[in-house]
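Thread: Newbie trying to understand structure tokens

Hi all, I'm a second-year student working on a class project, and my supervisor (Dr. K.) asked me to get a predicted structure for one chain before our next meeting. I've only ever worked with sequences, so writing a 3D structure as a token string is new to me. If someone could post the tokens and maybe explain what I'm looking at, I'd be very grateful. Here's the chain:
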Amino acid sequence: MIDFPARRRRLSALAAARGLDGVLVFSWRRAAVAWCCGYTPGFATNWAALWIGRDGEATLGVRFPFELERAARESGLPCVEAPLPIAVVPLAARAIGIVAGDVAIDELPVEVAAELARCGIAHERLDDELNAWRAIKGPAEIAALKRAAAICSAALWAGASSTQWSDDFALAAAVEAACRARGATRALCLVGAGDGAVVTEPHGAPLPLDGPIGVELTIQLPDGSGHVCHTYAEGLAAQRCAAARIACERARAAIIATIAPGTPVDAVVAAGEAELARHGLLGSREYDFGHGIGLETPERPRLLAGLGERIAVGQVIAVHVGVRRAALGTWVTGGPVVVGDDGASELLRGAPWSAPDAVAGAHIATTPPPIPKTRATAAIR
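---
Reply by user tm_fold:
Sure, no problem. This is what the structure looks like when written as tokens:
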């Protein structure tokens, strides 16, 4: 069980320490409000505004009156219709904190700042503080993220279960349908079809039987998200991309082996880059090395150098590595790990992206896996 009142008390205490009357938390599609009370606005035109006073009193405002019943049920809070986000802010408030963004998206409508100024209410952003708190997961959150990872794993196998997919639309539809059937509220499968292809939105590209097919899958559950990468390859494609596959798997293993409480993210990134450099593929790296996941993706920490972040116990991080180079192949792989006292471990053992022997420091085979006869057996490792 998530202790939502404790989370709101934490924001109340922060408001009091900053001399603020309270905090306005706003969400449109992202998860700031959900983290504080369990209610997610859902469909694209809805939003939610949560007021948390410095005294701990909380009120949830939703855009549409027909959402009031669901909002009250899921949050356990007094709920009101709020035609504007600041409708939940008490008239006496003169200085407030605002949380409306995460590491990827700022959802605060531009009209809100103007309306606050018109009402004589000063404000300061508290997004960084809440995002830092969200980066550390408790047991219930980790269990939810593991369920999301299991759904992603099953969906990847669903995508490999037939040779009938003619283009990237069909493959993405099969993967996304498998996620939805298992409880995902949102699912997005990106596809890169063929040697050197960038993983992106499906657009009708034919799926080559003699080339690698990369996918990036992101899903949303009511209590967590999933984010994984995978490459389907068989026959000559698997042989042609063996060097890229081995480099990606070894780089991911080096990253995971370096992740430990207190370790600078810069050191984690350097470990992955060094391994790719040993394989002559650093200049062919595609994407970053990953980021935190939680109620949303991405979250902190981001595996990017220069941000000054450190690894901490309780973080769940999607670690992925991808390369694109015609001579040595195209490959992308990755999925979530969880940080414990002794370092990082795969959140879901036996998943298509996991390589527990490599993480443990065992020898990684330098020959391609057995050549599958159909795409049904093409999910590597």
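A couple of things are worth pointing out once you decode it. Confidence is low (pLDDT under 50) at residues 356-381. The chain has eleven helices and 15 strands. Feel free to ask follow-ups in this thread.
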